[in-house]
Design goal:
Layout: E1 3-7, H1 11-22, H2 24-27, E2 31-35, H3 40-50, E3 52-58, E4 63-69, E5 74-76, H4 82-88, E6 89-94, H5 100-113, E7 120-124, H6 131-139, E8 148-152, E9 156-161, E10 164-169, E11 172-178, H7 182-191, E12 206-210, H8 212-218, H9 221-224, H10 226-230, H11 232-239, H12 253-272, H13 280-288, H14 296-301, H15 316-320, H16 323-326, H17 328-342, H18 347-362, H19 368-371, H20 374-379, H21 384-392
Parallel strand pairs: 1-2, 1-6, 2-5, 3-10, 6-7, 7-8, 11-12
Antiparallel strand pairs: 3-4, 8-11, 9-10
Helix pairs in contact: 6-21, 17-18
């Protein structure tokens, strides 16, 4: 097994494919991409959009590369021919949003139909929403226990349009490895990103390995994404069909104060679980090399070169189907679960959860898909220490912890 498979053809999946093709002569692996939940006509249209000569504009380095993407590299996850791509893949990147219903569906299919031994499964942009659930599945003997499972922050800040990608490969990202052989898993992941010599690291991006519990708390989209799109001023713009830059124009000084308070409570909650966390300005410094500013609003305004392509949803309908709602709201509910198990007061976060629930009701969103993981979280036993043990070492038997 030497191939690389990407499941999911969104911004990150397409960027990853182009990046892997551009460095293929170095890593020596054959990358493929499977679109997820797409009918035959949709797959054909998406292949036409994603193949051909793709321009990758790297914003921070002010450079551009052109990459030839062959249509034969694409297929559908539901296509019977996809079974060969899954079987021969040594590394599988799942870039489908961390929407619990979707991720659980993928896990069920992989576990039921394929031998996962010796495979490395990388769950991209995974963290709060499904990480505790996946750890519990491993604890209970799901076939994922036979694979190396890596939870990873996104490798890029990116936006992929037809025949064009605008973004940046991050200098460093956090990952967590659930495996009986974590060193092997890390080596396989680094092997997919072989340009580390250009930044003086083993790979580019460089990978900082965190414990499972550390990574759960390091993700910030549950408040940075959701709070911005549901902020009354921004929601009014979306209703009017007016787009704004999510991280820049979407944050005014009042919202910055709220985000800062939630970020500080995230750090405080982490300490209950034995985790010392970076605040978000420190994350920006690590990922993009931006100087840390004392004011949250000013810090976000300093990101103009990093986030200049990050546009908001064009309409309420698109907002309802966006990752901001479908992926990041479930993550918020996992943070709420961790807060409740810790038994500590987090007034800014609690008020924020109430605001989000009220906004979702007004948006007429079916919340079933956003809460499918809640019963699974409820089945996990114990308080903070038991949860830490599960997230950090799920391969141990329940009796051993």
């Amino acid at each position: 097994m030497t191939d690389i498979l990407i499941v999911g053809g969104g911004h990150v999946g397409r960027t990853l494919l182009v990046d892997l093709i551009s460095s293929q002569e170095i890593h020596g692996k054959d990358p493929r991409l499977l679109f997820f939940r797409s009918n035959e006509v949709d797959v054909k249209n998406r292949i036409a959009e994603a193949s051909g000569t793709v321009k990758f504009e790297k914003v921070l380095s002010a450079s551009t590369m052109h990459v030839e993407v062959d249509p034969s590299l694409f297929s559908s996850f539901d296509d019977p021919r996809a079974a060969e791509a899954i079987s021969t893949a040594s590394v599988i990147f799942i870039t489908v949003p961390d929407i619990p219903a979707l991720r659980l569906e993928i896990f069920r299919k992989l576990g039921a139909d394929f031998d996962l031994r010796d495979k490395t499964i990388v769950l991209v942009k995974a963290g709060q929403a499904t990480q505790p659930v996946v750890a519990e599945m491993i604890r209970r003997g799901h076939p994922l226990a036979d694979a190396d499972v890596i939870f990873a922050e996104s490798f890029y800040g990116t936006r992929a349009e037809q025949e064009s990608i605008v973004g940046n490969r991050k200098l460093s990202i956090n990952i967590s490895i659930l495996s009986r052989d974590p060193a092997r898993a890390l080596d396989k992941l680094r092997g997919c990103f072989p340009l580390g010599d250009r930044i003086g690291k083993p790979s580019w991006p460089d990978f900082t390995v965190l414990s499972g519990v550390d990574l759960v708390f390091s993700a910030t989209a549950y408040f940075l994404h959701v709070a911005i799109v549901l902020h009354p001023r921004n929601f009014a713009l979306t209703q009017a069909g007016v787009q704004y830059n999510h991280y820049l124009d979407g944050i005014d000084r009042s919202l910055a104060q709220k985000l800062d308070a939630i970020d500080r409570e995230r750090v405080a909650l982490g300490r209950v679980y034995g985790v010392e966390l970076e605040r978000f300005p420190e994350v920006l410094n690590r990922q993009y090399g931006l100087p840390i500013l004392p004011n949250f609003y000013d810090m976000m305004q300093s990101c103009r070169e990093v986030y200049k392509s990050m546009a908001s949803p064009k309409s309420v309908e698109l907002l309802q189907r966006s990752r901001h709602i479908l992926e990041d709201v479930p993550a918020l509910y996992t943070i709420e679960w961790l807060m409740q198990r810790a038994g500590i007061a987090m007034p800014a976060t609690a008020a924020y959860v109430a605001e989000v629930n009220k906004a979702l009701s007004s948006l007429d969103i079916d919340q079933t898909a956003l809460t499918v993981h809640r019963p699974l979280l409820a089945e996990i036993q114990g308080g903070p220490q038991a949860i830490v043990n599960l997230l950090n070492a799920p391969h141990r038997t329940a009796a051993a912890t």
